[in-house]
Design goal:
8-stranded mixed beta sheet, 6-stranded antiparallel beta sheet, 17 strands, globular
Length: 365
């Protein structure tokens, strides 16, 4: 377990300490922010998605808990424990140079990917809505208009990613200005680029009673993979249609690492002969991106819930929802990806309470 912070330690001090404890610099500082639930506290009985206020905390008026997920951990502790999902998460990253090492050094030595994110666990509620995975920018100031240049840079990433994934992505720059200030903020749509389960590169399903593979272990030859599937989109739609709360699911995501250099803070190889693009300077600003997995309830606007039959219609339909407002989302996973420079953003510590990482070592299986 990570050392306990002192009672007087501020959020900035916690983040800087995590940076000092990291084996590399520059490094990635990862925080799970869906809202960890204390084992002694009862689960919320509400079925409504968390609320959001524009330019605010991404989840109501109170600061959200941000639990540290160390880079290149083994994933042997529960870091996600919320109303919708229980599980572990591992962010594997290749060493930045030949002198640096990590426990996954041999794994990356035979692969070209820069990083790989793995998520393993169980759903606590079935049929919340269609699942989407990708990046959402929760902390931007949406009252500020977006420049045409920034919009153009954002749009550059869409076509290469869709070609790579072989699937249509939902891309939006979010509601800005008056559009971001819809009643309660919940009807607003944030900047995001997300796709269905076909955005993952590998999925392993473990039956009830069987031991799931180690989330940080060797998954070669297990489950289904994009590169060996004749119709990956159809395979993942079928998988989602059969999901339940009894089986254990292991999701792996690495395809986008071809274009996203997280340690280098840049987008690369989007267009041949085109220079790399700084994420912080040209796209994100000082705010960290959030890697998310959420269920979209298309009927949330009128307060209804999606039945399993309606969910099946969504999965079999080629028509994608045109908007993903916050009021329609149930966040299962929300991983905030910070760097050392995030400590310079004072507003970040008003929106999040930074903690050491593990919740416990509960048996997910």
């Amino acid at each position: 377990l990570a050392p306990k912070p002192s009672a007087a330690e501020s959020g900035e001090q916690v983040l800087r300490r995590h940076a000092c404890e990291a084996p590399w610099s520059p490094t990635l500082l990862l925080y799970e922010t869906t809202g960890a639930r204390s084992p002694a506290s009862p689960s919320s009985s509400s079925s409504s998605p968390p609320t959001w206020s524009p330019g605010g905390d991404g989840g109501g008026s109170a600061a959200r808990e941000a639990r540290h997920v160390p880079l290149n951990s083994r994933g042997d502790a529960v870091v996600i424990d919320n109303e919708y999902f229980l599980g572990a998460l591992v962010m594997m990253h290749r060493p930045p140079d030949d002198k640096s090492t990590c426990i996954y050094h041999d794994y990356f030595s035979t692969r070209s990917r820069r990083w790989e994110l793995r998520l393993q666990g169980k759903f606590r509620q079935p049929s919340l809505g269609q699942l989407f995975v990708g990046c959402v920018l929760k902390d931007l100031d949406y009252a500020e208009p977006l420049s045409s240049f920034t919009s153009w840079l954002w749009s550059l990433s869409l076509a290469p990613l869709e070609r790579l994934l072989g699937a249509q992505l939902h891309f939006t720059l979010g509601d800005r200005g008056e559009g971001a200030d819809r009643p309660g903020g919940e009807a607003a749509e944030l900047a995001q680029i997300v796709g269905g389960l076909s955005a993952f590169d590998q999925v392993v399903v473990t039956s009830p009673g069987a031991a799931p593979p180690a989330v940080g272990g060797d998954l070669e030859g297990l489950g289904i993979r994009r590169c060996t599937s004749d119709d990956w989109a159809e395979a993942t739609r079928n998988l989602e249609r059969d999901m339940d709360t009894e089986q254990t699911y292991t999701f792996c995501f690495w395809g986008a690492s071809r274009f996203i250099d997280l340690l280098g803070d840049r987008l690369v190889n989007l267009i041949p002969m085109f220079p790399s693009i700084s994420l912080r300077s040209n796209i994100l600003g000082p705010w960290p991106p959030h890697f998310v997995l959420y269920a979209l309830d298309r009927d949330r606007g009128d307060g209804g819930e999606v039945s399993s039959g309606e969910h099946d219609k969504e999965l079999s339909s080629s028509a994608a929802p045109s908007r993903h407002p916050e009021r329609s989302k149930y966040y299962l996973v929300d991983l905030m990806i910070c760097t050392e420079r995030s400590a310079e953003v004072s507003e970040l510590f008003q929106r999040y309470v930074f903690r050491n990482g593990v919740i416990g070592t509960d048996d997910i299986a």
